[in-house]
Each structure stands twice: as structure tokens, then as C-alpha cells.
Amino acid sequence: MAIPNRSIQSNFDFGAICDWGIVLSLCTLIFVLPASIAILDSFAGLAVFFYLLKKIYFLAADWPAKTASLDLIGKVRFSWRGFYPPQNILDRPLQLLVAAFFISVLFSHYPSLSFLAFMGKFIKCVFLYFCCLEAFSKGKFIRIFFAIFMLSALVTSFNGAFQHYTGRDLIKGHCLGMEHLVLSQRINSTFASANGLGAYLLPVIGLVIHFLHKALVRKRSVLMAGIWGLFLVLLLACLCWTYSRSSWIGYLSILFAMVVLDRRKVFFAATLFLVCILIFLPSLSKVRHMHLIRDQETSVQDNGSFKSMLEQGGSGRFTFWKKAISIIRTSPIWGTGLNTYGRILKLNPDIKTWWYAHNCYLQLTAETGVIGLAAFLWMLFVLLKNGLYHCYHINDLWQLTMLQGVVSGLFGFLVQSFFDNTFYTVQLGVLMWLLFGLMVSLMRLRTNAQGVS
To answer: How many domains is the chain partitioned into structurally?
Structure first.
């Protein structure tokens, strides 16, 4: 029996109150994200609570009229659909991703460990994505979230600069020169590692670059151009001082995406590319005595081959990747189970292999198999393809600039994740799903405003 379309229209403003609760929770979450995992989790839970509260309220309001003629199966389906977010482009890819991850839990080598990760990490992030779609239905909510995001990034980057010049950051007291008990000159601000800070800065840089270009083009926005310009200088300085080569590659990817999205920005992108060539790379050679790929400036065993270049670069990533591939071969279809990679590695008596894969896509394949990787890549393809399409068709200048910034920043973030364990850190994993939600919400604003699909 067909299920009537569920209506959530009401004269009572309870839904609006819940929307504000979600927005304020997400804003607090994004502000504290760089500094506190505990507070982040608390407000993530609060955002999900408001989301479920809104859905339960409207489900209860619609129940008598909408389910009177339904059988038991129809009522179950109606209840299930009641908790869904507004229809969006990731409906089908996300359903497949959830199914693939759940299959990996069923066939996991450590079922309890995988189930806890599935419910406590993955489903939490999925619901945060739902929260974005539910609450960011108006441009003003996105503007509020964006302002708080930029304020948090400003505080984080200023804290990193303070750490660079004084040797200790203001918020957590991290000492410059010690990262995971290893001597270093790399800043990490409030993050556990310099690579984590670098990955966090990439989406922010993507947004700031596009808003700076917008301000430069509009000659009446001289003040805003100056503000965005100073902010970008601070962000790039902190990105440089992380000496995170994976993040620098992500930065170059942002510039590439910037040109793809708008070819008129090619000269602006070229100028920013020179920053990497003239400032980033010389400082890397001076401070870490490395090249962008190679770990050492000179090599005694260089035969010019690509394999040789990999083996002598990447801070041991070639070894980590080979280990990940060997794990994939043991269970290629559905993987060893969500969140089991570290446990599987510890079965090896060689303590040097007790690391993340330093490649999110290889680690994802090892844990969830080719099914999980295919589902995730399909979701990214649908997301980026639609983002590119909407960037060519949005008429509102602010929405266009915002979407271009999110698309390019997310692209750089995803490229950086090929060289690090970005998805598998709590803060950056949450950030990625918030970017997903923000990007889809911007596209939905365009379709709602113009009446197109």
C-alpha cells in the first residue's frame, strides 16, 4: 500500500525552535572543534538530540491522520521515513555506504570493536550531516555558521603563530619542538599533530581565497579585501610552519580546483602557487632538510625510478602502504572490519608497523573492503560532480563564492587524506561530514530559490 507523503507543516513554531537548537549546537561544535574533543562530542550529541526531537514531534503530529489506513509494514516504513532528512543528492550513495560499512561489521574480525565504531563514530557523523541539511535551509543560518567557523579558524591560526614565535601555544600549552615526543620545529596549535593542523587549515584557506578574490574584484570592497588578505597571510604562514608536506599538496590541489571552478582566477591561483615555490619549499629545505617528496636533500641510492623515489620519501609511507595492501589481500571484499586496522597491525611482532596506514583510502579498503571504498568514492563523485555543476549555475554571488570555497577546500582536504589518517581523527572526521552537509545545503538553497532540480 502506498504511503502518503509525510507533512511537517504546522502553525506551531516548535520546528523553528529545534532548528535554532541545531544551528547553535553546530556553531558551538565548529568553534570548539580544534581545541576539545569532549566538548565537540557533547554538542554533536546535542545537535542530534534537537534533530531527533523535531522529527519525533512532527512524526507524532502526523501519525493519526497519515497512518490510519496503513498496515503494520506501512506504519514501520512511515516511521522510518519520518527520521530522514530532506531529500538530497546523497540519499542513494549514503544508503549504500551505510550498508557497506554494516556488512564490514558483520564480517569483522572484532565484531564488538567494529559495532562500537559504527554506532559511535560513523552513525554520529551521518546524523551531523542530517543536522546540516535540516537546519541550513535558510541562508542566514549558513552565514552564522560560516562566521563562527572563520572566527574559530582565526583563533586557531593566531594561536599557531603565537606558538611559532614564543615556543608555546596559548590555549593548551603545547611546546614548539615536541610533537609525539619527537623533536620538531612544526607548529600544531591545539591539534595533536602538525599534519592535523594543516588538514584543518585547508578548507578554511579554500573559503578565504575565494572571498578574497571576490573582494578584490569588487572595487568597493577595499576594506574587506584587506581583512581577507591579512587573514589569508596568517593562514598561509601557519600552513607553512606546519611543514606538513601532505597539507601542502592539498593546498596545491585547492589552487587547481580554483582554476577548474573559474578560469578567470588562473592568475590569482598562479600568484598563490608562487608562495609555495618561493616560500614553502625553501623553508622545508632549511628547517626539515627535505624536499616535497624526498625525505633527504641528497640520496646515495637514487636510480631515478619512481619506486626508488617513493622508498626514499614520504617519511616511511611506502612501507605503511605496502602493509595496508597486504591486509587488504587477506579480506578484499568486505575488509577486516570497521576500526580494526590498529588491532590487526598489532598482530605483527614488528613494532615499526604499529601505525595508521597514512592513507585514508587504503585504510578504508583494509577495514571495509572494496565494497566500502567503492561506496565512499561514489559518494564523493556524486558530491563533487554536483558541486561543480552548481558552481556554473548559481546566480547569487555570495552563495557562489561560498560553494566554490567549500568545493575547492574539500577537494584539497580529500587529496591530503591520501597521504595521512585524516578521516580517522575525531575532529577532522567530523569536519569532513560538516563540509559535506554545508556543501549540499548550499546546493539545495540554489535549487529551492530557482525551482530546479
So the answer is: 3
Q: Is residue 4 part of a domain?
A: no
Which of left, alpha, beta for 289 (phi over 0: left; psi -120 to 50: alpha)? left
pLDDT tens readout for residues 136-154: 988 899 999 999 999 999 9
**Cell numbers representing residue 366 in the block:** 583494509
pLDDT given for residue 307 in this prediction: 57
All three cell numbers of 77: 516504513
Domain that holds residue 121: 92-131+312-453
- The whole-angstrom separation of Cα 283 and Cα 40 is 34
Q: Which long-range contacts (CB under 8 A, 24 or more apart) does 268-274 make?
A: 268/209, 268/213, 268/216, 272/209
Cell of 275: 608562495
pLDDT score recorded for residue 60: 85
Q: Is residue 3 part of a domain?
A: no
Q: Do 435 and 411 fall into the same domain? A: yes
Annotate 349-373 with three-state secondary structure: CCHHHCCCCCCHHHHHHHHHHHHHH
Question: Is the Cα dihedral 12, 14, 15, 20 positive or negative?
Answer: positive
